[in-house]
Amino acid sequence: MKVRFEDVSLNYDKQKEVLQDLSFEIPKGKLTCLLGPSGCGKSTTLNLISGLLPPSKGRIYFDEQDVTKKDALGRRVGMVFQNYALYPHMTVLENICFPLKMAKVKKTDRLKRANDLAKLVHVTDELAKRPGELSGGQQQRVAIARSLAKSPSILLLDEPLSNLDARLRVEMRDEIRKIQLATGVTTVFVTHDQDEAMHIADKIMILNDGKIQQYTTPNNIYDHPSNLFVAKFIGNPEANVIPLAGLESNFSSLIPEKALKKAISLIVRPESIVSANSALAALPLKFQGQLVDSRRFGKEMAVKINFQDKEILATAIPSEDLKSATQLLEFSLKTTGVFLCDQAGKVVWSASDERIVNDD
Ligand SMILES: Nc1ncnc2c1ncn2[C@@H]1O[C@H](COP(=O)(O)OP(=O)(O)OP(=O)(O)O)[C@@H](O)[C@H]1O
């Protein structure tokens, strides 16, 4: 089932619009992540899809059917929340069966379905236990099985992994992806964790302040951010932002004049700064900066450089190229992860495709 929003707005208090004129389509059978900082409107968007909240304006479609006025039950969505919301007095089997019991599905049929789902989410050995006897990860598996029991049209997951420890998060993240691929259910997954979204999603919608910043594949988001917000929000450590004033002449042979005129900042990912003599230095640019600090964390390097009176971070300069504590470092840039943006934060040039993006 695909989901379509047409100019959807929402306010909770009839004053400030928490979401403003959202129009987008969530593709059928794919996993889409809603990603953004706290308060950007992710859960509100999810609740509009589920029917728990009616929009203040606009229309919502499931395939071609207008569901704007339908409630959550009528939309047949499955929901999983971060706190699992399992019934503590019921066994795992009873929890998974519960939605089917409410729907008056025959006992033999619901037991078969529950057993099939338990197998899918790997909780077959826990069926007789109560939620209190399970780990967080196991509880979340049961919650997912329960939400899938009635073959929902869409599965909605609201920060489902945030109560789990780091290792379990990664394990469950991969597990959810496998379950989604095995069932083919259209899934919307809310997270504020970019790593989670990058690993699990077919498409990522980045929200900020109630507006869509960019909506595309994880690789596109990383390689071709549409604006400064996305470029800084995605990528860890964060991209460096350097004022372009005084550097324009370095770029004049590389960049069309029109783009250069508009550009005010250079955005460079830390891994895109390389030693000038490196074979990876793909752009015909050379800069000098003062080494401020360097640290190695296992396979990772963190080199701080004072450049244009600003401290920037480089993670791809090898320790062999660092000779003295305060040396002048000559560095260059890779073609990937290098962008120019204008006053409004819009990316107007991207080194990786050497074309003007957003040329209007
Ligand atoms: N029931 C409500 N009444 C009034 N304002 C609300 C309500 N729920 C959310 N908001 C406001 O709407 C905005 C979006 O909230 P929402 O919960 O959708 O954000 P979010 O991106 O899911 O945040 P988080 O990651 O912190 O859960 C926030 O400014 C929030 O304060």
Automatic annotation (TrEMBL):
The answer to whether UniProt assigns keyword Flavoprotein to this entry is no
User: InterPro entries, from UniProt?
Assistant: AAA+_ATPase, ABC_transporter-like_ATP-bd, ABC_transporter-like_CS, ABC_transpr_FbpC, ABC_transpr_MalK/UgpC-like, P-loop_NTPase
PROSITE patterns documented for this protein = ABC_TRANSPORTER_1 (PS00211), ABC_TRANSPORTER_2 (PS50893)
The record's annotation in Gene3D superfamilies points to: 2.40.50.100, P-loop containing nucleotide triphosphate hydrolases
- List, alphabetically, the SMART domains matched: AAA (SM00382)
- What keywords are annotated for this sequence in UniProt? ATP-binding, Cell membrane, Membrane, Nucleotide-binding, Transport
All copies of the ABC transporter domain together span 3-234
Q: Which GO terms describe its molecular function?
A: ABC-type ferric iron transporter activity; ATP binding; ATP hydrolysis activity
Give the GO cellular component terms, alphabetically.
ATP-binding cassette (ABC) transporter complex, substrate-binding subunit-containing
Concerning Pfam families, the annotation shows: ABC_tran
PANTHER family recorded for this chain?
A: MALTODEXTRIN IMPORT ATP-BINDING PROTEIN MSMX (PTHR43875), OSMOPROTECTIVE COMPOUNDS UPTAKE ATP-BINDING PROTEIN GGTA (PTHR43875:SF1)
Q: What is this protein called?
A: Sugar ABC transporterATPase
Species source reads Liquorilactobacillus vini DSM 20605
Q: What is the lineage of its organism?
A: Bacteria, Bacillati, Bacillota, Bacilli, Lactobacillales
